[in-house]
Every structure is written in structure tokens, then in C-alpha cells.
Design brief:
Blueprint lengths: L7 H8 L27 E12 L4 E11 L6 E6 L3 E7 L4 E2 L2 E3 L8 E6 L6 E7 L7 E4 L11 E4 L19 E9 L5 E4 L12 E11 L5 E4 L2 E4 L4 E5 L1 H10 L3 H12 L7 E5 L8 E2 L4 E4 L12 H8 L7 E3 L6 H19 L1 H22 L23 H18 L1 H14 L3 E3 L1 H13 L3 H7 L1 H6 L13 H11 L16 H9 L7 H11 L7 H13 L6 H10 L3 H11 L3 H14 L5 H11 L1
Parallel strand pairs: 1-11, 16-17, 17-19, 20-21
Antiparallel strand pairs: 1-2, 2-8, 3-7, 4-5, 4-8, 6-7, 9-10, 10-14, 11-13, 12-14, 15-16, 18-19
Helix pairs in contact: 3-4, 3-5, 4-5, 5-6, 5-7, 6-7, 6-13, 7-8, 8-9, 13-15, 15-17, 16-18, 17-19
């Protein structure tokens, strides 16, 4: 990759001057290929956002006031925008109007906004309005919500969609603090990735403060008919009123998770940790917005069996939000670390057996994605290369599950106690900073491996980080619970399935069972399995999605109506993609998929429908 090299020390100083400087700070970094901004010349420091949310026009309008540091004493500063209408730009406390211009449009990145400044300018005000097609925004009609009475808005800024609702320097290596004033209809509540109100006020004007520097992808807003219920003194749940009690019960272990995480890797630094349960069109399982995780309602299973998602998003409060990948080519530093951390929280709260089952499922996902992409595919390397592509393409099981397996490999080689101390020091050393892959590898070599050739040989850093496929030193992964299921599957066609549901009960057990069923199941066998486990009408979204893929593959038509209902109501991309992908394997299935999608697309977030558009074209 051709890169423009920047001196990291200068950028780190300007963004987080109060942080500890390490011996690795002399490692040079590549230019972020997914932002037009030039943070080595002029960089943002703080945002004062004053906006109004208009549900009638489905637009946000207002003013983004950026405090800037003109490092190079340049005559301009560059922001990222996508489909934004810029009315005017002013500079200084007295708001003197200044000239601005746009660069060429890039279909992925949007277009750069170049603003004229002087050496003395430290404040830039951008007056703007969002497009109805803003990729970060999903506007829901009342009938698309649980309550059916009020509209709803939520944002999804990761990876490079913040620029579609706030003009910003939209790269994960650029951090800023922010204050916000948000005006919404008075019957609705607004919440953000910041310190939040816990109840509605009379005028619909809400004020927010985020005192820790964050990258733009963690800028988040939701507006709707929301209520709040505490779980303990520093955790709680926001949801539509009809969902609130269910959500609070489901997430009752949030406080235990925070405590377990702190014991592992140091204090939680963000104040409160709350979860917002969104309408079902939310495209992800969760989004780790600081202070307030955004979560899909598909994790509300009624038995707390899917709350590992909360453990994952909580873990991001250290790996991702506290220490962030410098570019989206380094996404594994966020997601691989977080998947490892999630498993450690799960082990501490729910026990080793539960964690081991999740580990085996993760390993299975890694094997599957490498098989799908090809063992020599460059997209199976941990260090990615998404220049010229949407970095959302990098959000695959590689960054999650290969990253997790790499950290397991380091743990196995160095020992858990030593590795835990290393990770805790890493989070403390680079708190509220961004790091790239090369910087982490350098830190690993200097602070853990320390020239120990035997240890380096056990870890095999280069093979894991810079080579495709799965290295040969990956640790074994075995679950005794799953071994018992293997025996049941081996005898599946030799004995009746009656009574199996008494032994295969948990979500992890059911998912493993479904993924290891023999090929070529007959309609009769599908009927027997469905009768035994009640898969088709299951209220567990993970189990439903796995079963529905099998139902489509085996043309098990009793599930058809349920599949259509699921695809129409649920917008989580993790479920949509494999279901549509299985449907389009046959001409009849593709026609069916297109009929469903014609009705369902309006309920999907742009993150999801962009993926399905490409699949069905």
C-alpha cells in the first residue's frame, strides 16, 4: 500500500497530551485511507453540537462548532462530509464568515469540505442540514416501533457514517470531546454517547457532555418514546416502555459484568454503563457507543441466554473506546481484543463451561469464514487492506475470531497471569489514544516477548498478523458439553430423537447441534427435529436464524411463513445475510427472496439494505 507517513508523536501530543508516552511512540503510522482530513496539519479537538431533529422532513439541521489545533499553521482545514448540505461556515467567537469549497465526490468516502482558516483561528462553525438519504440515520414511523404511537430515530456512525450526519474528521485515529444541545419533539426523549438524562423534560431540549476524547464513529444519537430503569447504581436500561421490564430483567447481570471486567483490566473510566434497546431494524447486535451501548431487541430471549452481547459491548469500553484502532485496516485491534475480553468476562460471571462453548463456536466461525474466503485470501489477514473499499467489508469473523484466537495463542504461550498484566498495562499506557497494528506488535515485542526467541517461536506473530489463513499453532478448543452432543448427532439416525431436548437446551448447545447436523436431512427428519425442539416458532433469534437457514436449504415449507415474518421484522444484518444468501441458491428461492425484500427493505437500516441490495442484484 502506498502511504503518506506521519509522525505519530506529534498527533498523540495534540490529541492526548496528558497521556503517558511510551517507547513505542517512534513507530510511524500509515495515513488513514478512509478520511479526507489531514490531522497532521489541522485537527479537531472539541465539538459543540447544536441541532434540531425534524421527523416531518426526516432531517437534522444545526451547527457544528469545532475547536481546532492548526498544527502546521496551514490556511485550510478539511472535514469529511457525505450528502450534507452546508449553508455557511464561520470562524472565531465572533463568527466571521469564511470561504469553503468541496472536493470531488467519492462514492464511498463522500466529499471533502475544505475551509479557509488563518494561523490564529481556533474555532470553526459549520451550519448544515442532513440528507434524507444519510447513511447513518434511520427514521422509523410509529408502526415500526413497539409502541406504535411515536416515531423513532437512531444513528449508526461506525465505520465511516458519522460524516453523513455531522461534518467531521471521520477517522478512528482522531479524537475529540463534545457537548451537544439537541431539540426534539417534547413527547420524546433524546440520548447520546455521553452523560444522559433518565427521563423526559417539558421542552424537548436536551444537553449532553462527553468529557473523554472519542473518535467520530462513537458519536451517537437516539430519539424516541423511551423510558429508563436502573439495574444497579451505575448501570441501567433504556427502552420503549412496553419493552423496559423485559430488558431490565434480561440484563440484570450488567453490574456483575462491569465488576468482573474491572478485576481483569482496570477501572471502568466512563462513569455510567447503560444499554439502549432499539427497535428491531437496528443492523447490528450491539454498538459500543460510550456510556450507552445500542443493542438489538433480538437478544431479549427471555432466559438471559444471549447476554454475551452485553459482555462484548462492555469490553469495548477498554478495547476500542479506550484504546482504539488507528485506521479501519487495524479493526482487529478493536474486535479481536474485545472478543477475547468478552470471553474472559463470560468465564468470570457464568463459568468456564459456558465460556468454553462460546470459544468453540468462535473457532467454528473462524474455520467457516476462512473456508468461504479461501485460505490464501488477503482478507483473512488480521492486518487488513481496505483502501479503495468500504471499510465495512472488514467487519467479518476474521477480525473477531482470528483476532481472538491470536490473543489466545499469546496467552497459551506466555501464561495467563503474565498476559493479563501485559494487557492491563497496554490499556493504561494508551488510554484515550489510537494505535495501529505495527505499534501493537512493537509494544508486544518490547513489553512481553522481550527478545525471548522461544516465546516468539510459540506465538508466531508474523504468521498471525500478516499472513492469510489460520496458523498451525492455534490452541486446541474443546468443550465437554459439545462432545456429548457429538455423540447424540452420531446416533441421530439410529435412534429416535424423542427426549433430546431435555439434554440439549442452552442456546450454545442448540447452535452447535444445528450446525453439526448431518447433510441431506429428509423432510421427515426435519419434521421430527422441529417437533422435538420447537425450532420454527422459537423466540430465540439466534436459534431461529440457524434453523431457518436449514429450513430453506432443505425446502422445509412449514417454516416459510415464519421465515418471511422474521425477515420482515428483524433488521440485524448478521441474520439477514445468511438467510438471503441461502434463498438465492435456487431460482424459486431467489424469486421468494425478492418478494420478501420488496416489503422488508423499508424496515432495514442502510447498513443492512446496502448489503442485501448487493446480494440480490
Amino acid at each position: 500500500m502506498k502511504t503518506t507517513r506521519l509522525l505519530l508523536a506529534l498527533l498523540v501530543f495534540t490529541i492526548s497530551c496528558n497521556q503517558k508516552t511510551s517507547q513505542t511512540d517512534n513507530v510511524e503510522t500509515e495515513k488513514d485511507p478512509h478520511t479526507f482530513s489531514e490531522p497532521d496539519k489541522a485537527v479537531v479537538k472539541h465539538l459543540d453540537l447544536d441541532i434540531k431533529v425534524n421527523f416531518d422532513t426526516k432531517q437534522i439541521s444545526g451547527k457544528a462548532s469545532w475547536s481546532i489545533n492548526n498544527i502546521a499553521k496551514t490556511d485550510h482545514i478539511i472535514f469529511d462530509t457525505k450528502l450534507l448540505e452546508i449553508q455557511k461556515v464561520t470562524v472565531g467567537a465572533d463568527e466571521k464568515e469564511t470561504k469553503f469549497s468541496f472536493g470531488a465526490v467519492d462514492s464511498i468516502l463522500g466529499k471533502p469540505l475544505q475551509i479557509e482558516i488563518t494561523d490564529a483561528d481556533t474555532l470553526v462553525h459549520i451550519y448544515y442540514t442532513t440528507s434524507k438519504d444519510a447513511g447513518a440515520l434511520q427514521w422509523l414511523e410509529p408502526q415500526q416501533t413497539l409502541g406504535k404511537k411515536q416515531p423513532f430515530l437512531f444513528t449508526q456512525s461506525e465505520p465511516i457514517l458519522a460524516r453523513s450526519w455531522v461534518p467531521s474528521q471521520d477517522g478512528p485515529g482522531i479524537r475529540f470531546t463534545y457537548n451537544a444541545t439537541v431539540s426534539v419533539p417534547k413527547e420524546l426523549l433524546a440520548v447520546m454517547s455521553a452523560e444522559n438524562p433518565q427521563q423526559k423534560n417539558a421542552d424537548g431540549v436536551y444537553h449532553f457532555k462527553q468529557t473523554h476524547p472519542i473518535p467520530s464513529y462513537l458519536l451517537a444519537l437516539a430519539v424516541g418514546d423511551l423510558a429508563f430503569k436502573p439495574v444497579d447504581e451505575r448501570t441501567g436500561v433504556y427502552a420503549e416502555p412496553a419493552m423496559l421490564e423485559k430488558a431490565a430483567w434480561e440484563f440484570a447481570d450488567m453490574g456483575k459484568m462491569v465488576t468482573a471486567a474491572e478485576k481483569l483490566y482496570g477501572p471502568y473510566r466512563w462513569g455510567r454503563y447503560d444499554v439502549l434497546v432499539l427497535p428491531p431494524s437496528f443492523p447490528y447486535g450491539g454498538m459500543e457507543n460510550p456510556n450507552l451501548t445500542f443493542a438489538t431487541p433480538t437478544v431479549i430471549a427471555g432466559d438471559r441466554s444471549l447476554v454475551s452481547l452485553v459482555a462484548h459491548e462492555l469490553a469495548h469500553s477498554w478495547s476500542g473506546n479506550l484504546v482504539t484502532n488507528a485506521t479501519w485496516n487495524d479493526m482487529w485491534l478493536n474486535e479481536g481484543f474485545t472478543t477475547y475480553f468478552q470471553q474472559r468476562i463470560t468465564e468470570a460471571v457464568y463459568g468456564p463451561a459456558e465460556a468454553k462453548m462460546q470459544e468453540v463456536l468462535s473457532r467454528q466461525a473462524l474455520t467457516d469464514v476462512v473456508k468461504e474466503k479461501g485460505a490464501t485470501s488477503k482478507d483473512t489477514k488480521l492486518k487488513g487492506d481496505y483502501k479503495g473499499r468500504d471499510p465495512d467489508e472488514g467487519s467479518s469473523d476474521i477480525v473477531y475470531d482470528k483476532g481472538y484466537a491470536f490473543l489466545q495463542t499469546i496467552e497459551a504461550a506466555a501464561g495467563r497471569e503474565k498476559f493479563d498484566a501485559f494487557l492491563k498495562d497496554y490499556f493504561n499506557t494508551y488510554a484515550f489514544q489510537s494505535r495501529n497494528t505495527e505499534q501493537f506488535v512493537d509494544y508486544l515485542n518490547k513489553e512481553l516477548i522481550k527478545g525471548d526467541k522461544a516465546l516468539a517461536g510459540k506465538i508466531m506473530v508474523n504468521e498471525w498478523v500478516y499472513q492469510p489463513g489460520i496458523p498451525k499453532n492455534i490452541p486446541p478448543s474443546i468443550s465437554e458439553d459439545f462432545t456429548k452432543i457429538d455423540s447424540a448427532i452420531a446416533n441421530l439416525r439410529k435412534a429416535p430423537v424423542t427426549g433430546l431436548h431435555q439434554h440439549i437446551k442452552s442456546t450454545n448447545e442448540l447452535l452447535y447441534f444445528l450446525s453439526h447436523l448431518p447433510a441431506g436431512l429428509t423432510t421427515g427428519e426435519m419434521v421430527q427435529l422441529d417437533k422435538e425442539f420447537n425450532f420454527t416458532p422459537s423466540g430465540n433469534s439466534e436459534v431461529q436464524a440457524a434453523w431457518y437457514v436449514l429450513a430453506i436449504h432443505h425446502q422445509y415449507h412449514p417454516a416459510d411463513a415464519y421465515i418471511e415474518k422474521f425477515l420482515t421484522e428483524v433488521g440485524r444484518r448478521k441474520f439477514l445475510r445468511p438467510l438471503y444468501k441461502e434463498m438465492i441458491k435456487t431460482p424459486d428461492g431467489k424469486a421468494w427472496a425478492q418478494r420478501i425484500y420488496a416489503k422488508a427493505r423499508a424496515n432495514y437500516h442502510p447498513v443492512s439494505y446496502t448489503t442485501i441490495d448487493e446480494l440480490l442484484k
